[in-house]
Structures are given as C-alpha cells and as structure tokens.
Amino acid sequence: MRTKYSRVLLKLSGESLMGQQGYGIDKERLNAYAEQIKEIVDAGVQVAVVIGGGNIFRGLSGAAKGFDRVMGDQMGMLATVINSLALCSALNAEGQPARVFTAINMFPIGEQYSKWKAIEALNAGAVAIIAGGTGNPFFTTDTGSALRAVEVEADVMLKGTRVDGIYTADPEKDPTATKFSEITYDEIYNRGLRVMDLTATALCKENNMPIVVFDMDTPGNLAKVIDGQPIGTLVY
Predict the structure, then answer these.
(1) Which of 174, 115, 122, 176 is nearest to 6 (CA)?
(2) Distance (Å, whole) CA 55 – CA 50
(3) Cα gap 73→56, rounded to integer Å
(4) Phi, psi of 154 (to 5 degrees)
(5) Dist. CA 171–CA 126, nearest whole Å
(6) At the fourth CATH level, which superfamily is domain 7-235?
C-alpha cells in the first residue's frame, strides 16, 4: 500500500477518549484508536502520538475554579501521562509495540523524551507516545503536538477530533456553518477560528508543518487520511 505520508504526528483529544460515558477512559474508544493506529503502522507509516488530558483534568478550567494555574497545568500534564499509558497498553494488546516518553522525568513510568530516542523508536517500528505536553505550564497539548511534530520531523500533524474538519463556525452550534477543504494558517488567525491555540498555529506556520483536521471517531478515517483521500481540512 502506497501512503501519502511516511511519518506523522497524531494529536488525539482527551475528551474523545471519554466516549459515551462523559468522563475518564472509554475502553471501546481506546481500543478503536489502537486498531486504527496499528492499521497505518502495518501500512508502513511511522506514528508519533500526543494525547490531551481533558477527559481527566484541564489546567485552564482548574484555574477558573481556584487552582493555582501552574499547579493546574501540572495536573493536566499528569492526565496526559495517564491517557498515554492507557493507549500504550491498548496498542501492546493489539500486538503493536509502543513506548511512552514524558516531557519531564518520570522514570520508570515512561522514558524521558528526547527527539533522538523518539525517532529511534519510530525507526524500530514502535509507536512513540509523547506525554506531558511541553513540560511547561501555560502551553496546551496542541502546542506540545506542534512542537513534537517539528522535532521528530513528521511530514504532517494530524489532529483527530470529533468533527470532520474546520468550519466557518462551530457546526455543533451553527447549522449554517460550512466546511473548508483547505485553509491557510493566516486565514485561521484572521477569521478567529478556534482550531487550536495561536501558539500552536504559529509554530506550524513558521516551520511549514501542514495540519490535517479530521474526524478520528469514525473507524477507518485515519487510514483514509494517510491514503491521501480528501477528508477533513488541510491547513497549510
């Protein structure tokens, strides 16, 4: 199977891991993600993954409830580590080797992240799951994803979400919203679209890292994106 991309950084939403239960980790959703990831690794694609932590704790919403922002963000980083361990376990159960790297030293829970160790894992056929965001407060996991995509020299950053691309407005709230097949980084900024935070968008723009936003919750979509099929929205 010929694929459009040879190395990708897949950003998964923590909220999506909740599935239908509204909190924590839905095992069916987790296993569905693991199956989709294994499918593209089997096709010869090297895959690095960054997962959010919103299904467990969000630093920003914690700060709104009175948590210290720095400590709240640190709690959010730990949430991403829990999700990363869960995905690693699910991948291993599928027979797909995976390694968890953490932005801050958490040995033996995960290996401390470095670009070289992550690329070594990718070249060996393992999925490199990179947890803990950037390791710093005030940065989202979107920014962490953009940073890691650039660092591991991915061809593209794939942002798996609950919606099938970028729209002129929130399609869950505005039935007249129309979808973009492709859009520039600048247009996202000028239109004020909340695709991901501005730091992440700027980092991708400065490093010419294309982004594909697509619906990860529909089984088979990840393989379609890798195959170059026009689903989702391309940001360039």
Answers:
(1) 122
(2) 14
(3) 12
(4) -70, 155
(5) 36
(6) Acetylglutamate kinase-like (3.40.1160.10)
Predicted model pTM? 0.94
Cα dihedral 87, 92, 94, 97 sign? positive
Instruction: Report the alpha-carbon distance of residue 6 to residue 12 in Å, rounded.
Output: 19
Q: Give the list of residues 6+ apart from residue 139 with CB closer than 8 angstroms, or none.
A: 73, 133, 199
Mean pLDDT by 10 residues, the chain (236 residues): 88 92 92 97 98 88 82 94 98 98 96 98 98 95 97 98 90 89 93 88 96 95 94 95
Structure tokens at 36: 């989709």
DSSP tally for the chain: helices H, then strands E:
8, 11
Provide DSSP, 116-132. Answer: HHHHHHHHTT-EEEEES
